[in-house]
């Protein structure tokens, strides 16, 4: 199960935002995230807010679309009453969990509500996550016909013993099939990988990368496995049943991914993400990294508007109760102070290829740039031009770079 939500102020029942959150809102993009918290099985490494059928305790998948639509309508009313300018959604992202455990028609209904309440900007990016074994060709056609433009498949690995260690249930041979179906439906395709799984060798990782490249997706995400407290994987490692992930091997895996993906025509644009070109980057995720606004719909979903952040009740039953009562599903809210917003700006901006303007750093951060160049962590050429961009070594040590930039 996922960990507790952060401590903060209670969220108001009416959801209204403070006036300051809407300053310059018209200059920020608006995205919508829809959390679908259902999974067939709980993967051993996962600490996301997800629930199998036995954990729903009175909540139901069949009623979820109507509940989410209730929050979408509530969100539109809150933003209007708070004085927000009309802004169509630039991006919509259905994540989870496994959104495609719901019928495709339910996902299309929820998207239709977003279109009706907010509008969709011309060329809006609309993504759903999916497992390779949770969709068929008809599902993907229905999603495309209903306005989805992109699907992100949780491939994770092409090697059976690695998938088994992660408790992933799909057959890797199904990935080429679902990619083909998505292409035939007119959807852009992203493939998501995890590296550093206990028992995974560098050769195993090469096999997965080569399998991804053979499918020619538009976008690839590759995330290092993080062992989260409270997960099945953490317990297996603690008992000695699985080896602790090797940081040096994980670094080698990252470098191999960058080499092979780069040779295949993919450019990194964020520490863990590569795309065939600027148009294939995940615009929704870029909105997070650039500090735009988004409304998160669903149990445990987080939202952010102009430095105000809030999060919903985690369990689907508690979420449904609040939606049914006509009150905000949010249970906590915080207004970020200037120091926290600056820390997050540096942390997130540094992760993307465009980097951060050196002149925007405080004096200590500007002084740190020369040392970061000398240590091979940021690009010398771009630093001289006034912008800090991570080298590949810097990407591996991104957290250390940020700490140095934030030192006084």
UniProtKB/TrEMBL annotation:
<keyword id="KW-0004">4Fe-4S</keyword>
<dbReference type="InterPro" id="IPR007197">
    <property type="entry name" value="rSAM"/>
</dbReference>
<dbReference type="InterPro" id="IPR006638">
    <property type="entry name" value="Elp3/MiaA/NifB-like_rSAM"/>
</dbReference>
<protein>
    <recommendedName>
        <fullName>Heme chaperone HemW</fullName>
    </recommendedName>
</protein>
<dbReference type="InterPro" id="IPR013785">
    <property type="entry name" value="Aldolase_TIM"/>
</dbReference>
<keyword id="KW-0963">Cytoplasm</keyword>
<comment type="function">
    <text>Probably acts as a heme chaperone, transferring heme to an unknown acceptor. Binds one molecule of heme per monomer, possibly covalently. Binds 1 [4Fe-4S] cluster. The cluster is coordinated with 3 cysteines and an exchangeable S-adenosyl-L-methionine.</text>
</comment>
<keyword id="KW-0349">Heme</keyword>
<feature type="domain" description="Radical SAM core">
    <location>
        <begin position="24"/>
        <end position="267"/>
    </location>
</feature>
<dbReference type="InterPro" id="IPR004559">
    <property type="entry name" value="HemW-like"/>
</dbReference>
<dbReference type="Pfam" id="PF04055">
    <property type="entry name" value="Radical_SAM"/>
</dbReference>
<dbReference type="InterPro" id="IPR058240">
    <property type="entry name" value="rSAM_sf"/>
</dbReference>
<keyword id="KW-0408">Iron</keyword>
<keyword id="KW-0949">S-adenosyl-L-methionine</keyword>
<keyword id="KW-0479">Metal-binding</keyword>
<comment type="similarity">
    <text>Belongs to the anaerobic coproporphyrinogen-III oxidase family. HemW subfamily.</text>
</comment>
<dbReference type="InterPro" id="IPR034505">
    <property type="entry name" value="Coproporphyrinogen-III_oxidase"/>
</dbReference>
<keyword id="KW-0411">Iron-sulfur</keyword>
<keyword id="KW-0143">Chaperone</keyword>
